[in-house]
Amino acid sequence: MMMSLGPYASFIVTSYAAAALVVVILIGWIALDYRSQTERLRELDRSGVTRRSGRSATDTP
Questions:
Q1: pLDDT by residue (tens digit) across 11-46?
Q2: 7 HSE (CA, 13 A, CB side)
């Protein structure tokens, strides 16, 4: 089934390709940032840093 996009076919195809490229770039950026953040959290955990929200209200700082 071949669709006829008319005289604006190149604009339509380019627009869809650009949108797909932006989505792929954003997915890659999020994946790399996720890896970076989890590695940073592992480093902090290994160095003994804990979350303040993990303490109870009766604990002394």
A1: 999 999 999 999 999 999 999 999 999 999 999 888
A2: 0
pLDDT of residue 48: 84
Max intra-chain CA distance, the chain: 72
The answer to whether the beta carbons of residues 13 and 5 sit under 8 Å apart is: yes
**Is the pLDDT confidence value at 1 over 60?**
no
Pseudo-torsion of CA 41, 42, 47, 48, nearest 10°? 70
Q: For 48, left (φ over 0), alpha (ψ -120 to 50), or beta?
A: left
